[in-house]
Amino acid sequence: MLFTILGIEQELTASDGAKAKQALQRMWLDWIKLNPIPDDITQRFELLRRLFYQDMGFRGDWQQHYQSQCMLPTQLFSTKSGNATSLALLLRYFAAKLDIPCEFSNFPGQTLLRFELDLKVVYFDPFSNKELGYEQLESLYRGHEGNAARLENQSLTTLNNKQISQRWLEELKLAYLRESNYELALRVSQRLLEIKPGDPHEMRDRGFIYQQLECNSVAVNDFEYFIEQCPDDPLSKLLKAQISSLDSSPATLH
Questions:
Q1: H or E element, residue 192
Q2: How does DSSP assign 123-178, residue by residue?
Q3: What is the DSSP track for 44-73?
Q4: What is the pLDDT of the chain when averaged over all its residues?
Q5: Are strands 81-82 and 102-104 parallel, antiparallel or unpaired?
Q6: Residue 105 carries which DSSP code?
Q7: What's the pTM?
């Protein structure tokens, strides 16, 4: 999965994905020469944490958590600091090297990893390097969904590769929007529409990006599509007013 993300990053930003893969392989080979691998999977899990957070020095960075450079794997290799999703991608790569089953958890609002250690399942926060028990998971869930919410099994299922790519791209798009880098935000939005074609909310977001780039006519097309698909959404009324203020000739709304 990491190599897939590296390929997408290269398409979006013209980064050198091949060079990044070579650097990653060198890191692993240099480390494995000095560290014997135990047979016990629990010991391998602790070794993974030492490899990643101590020996290689990767870490979560709260100060730059929402910046695009923390989300790009090629940047992570050099800065060693990332957000939860970029760290999870890399940690999962090394988990596979150590033959430890590891998946992304379908947890709302936060990237967590799910490790299977024989009969034990561990939910893990890659940003803080902490295992999370059920009470901690439920507290995080309530923080995101509301105090009356209760943790459901659906939130503890795993994501497939398409869903992982979507989560990473959505975070990257938000980072570029915060940085007012609308050209790259548009590229990310276009890639998201390849994953979820015709998604009205993504079309709405793309319309906003087009508007910032002063491409008003195509922005109007995307806004109109959202209004047609989601007429009862509160934003539809606001977008109708927005359309009328743009210097364009949109189709008549009904």
A1: helix 182-195
A2: EEETTTTEEE-HHHHHHHHHHHH-TT----GGGGSB--HHHHHHHHHHHHHHHHHH
A3: HHHHHHIIIIIIS--EE-STTTTSGGGT-H
A4: 91
A5: unpaired
A6: B
A7: 0.90
